[in-house]
Amino acid sequence: MRLTARTALGTAAVLAAATLTPVLTAAPAAALGVTGTAPACVKRDVVKHRNYVKVTNTCRETMHLKVVIDWGSDSPCLTYQPGEQWEWTWGRGSYGKVVTC
């Protein structure tokens, strides 16, 4: 009986940890101001071997966007009016994605 009680407590602890893990891992991204991948109306022209991306806002609304560079420095969060474009180059790392911020 004692073994069963320990097993039940262990199972409860594992389930509680599994339930809380998404909340705990989501907090750092929210703290950085990143809200998700930019929508399809944000055009990305990437030339990976030149470490270059041109981002164009073809959306009907103003967008706040940031270029994420894997293993390198991300761009700052910039405000793009409809039709506005911006170029970003980086030295170290590789293109990851464009996110809203």
From TrEMBL:
Keywords: Alpha-amylase inhibitor, Disulfide bond, Signal. Gene3D superfamilies: Alpha-amylase inhibitor. It holds the Pfam family A_amylase_inhib. The keyword Transmembrane does not apply. InterPro entries: A-amylase_inhib (IPR000833), A-amylase_inhib_sf (IPR036379), TAT_signal (IPR006311). Residues 1-26 form the signal peptide. Coiled coil: none annotated. PROSITE patterns: TAT. SUPFAM superfamilies: alpha-Amylase inhibitor tendamistat. This is Alpha amylase inhibitor.
